[in-house]
Design brief:
The chain is mainly α. The chain has four helices and no strands. The radius of gyration is 19 Å and the shape is elongated.
Length: about 110
């Protein structure tokens, strides 16, 4: 947690400096590269979780989106496999959201 707080503090400092009309081509390149690396990592994670979801879908003959809706409504019971599938779907969605933010970083 301390490392995360320190990182956020450093990012905040850089933001404040940039808001005061400071510009650094090197910092821009480093940030672009960092975002690019994180986007690549998220894409690999997305592929990995998609493969896991595909396995559940094949095993239960149901798309993950439908499963998740039905599971959240309590229609499918409390099979341990369903809890794992639900957790994987949550993670997959979170990675999708992170990837969307990282992909949109260059559009802003």
């Amino acid at each position: 947690m301390a490392v995360q707080t320190e990182t956020l503090s450093r990012i905040h400092i850089l933001r404040e400096v940039y808001q005061q009309d400071y510009h650094s081509a090197m910092a821009d390149r480093v940030l672009d590269k960092l975002i690019d690396l994180e986007r690549g990592k998220a894409q690999r994670e997305l592929k990995e979780y998609r493969e896991i979801l595909d396995s559940f879908e094949q095993r239960h003959q149901m798309p993950s989106e439908l499963f998740y809706e039905r599971f959240q409504r309590g229609e499918l019971g409390d099979n341990a496999d369903f809890f794992e599938w639900s957790a994987m779907y949550d993670i997959w969605q979170a990675v999708q959201e992170r990837l969307a933010k990282l992909s949109g970083a260059f559009l802003q």
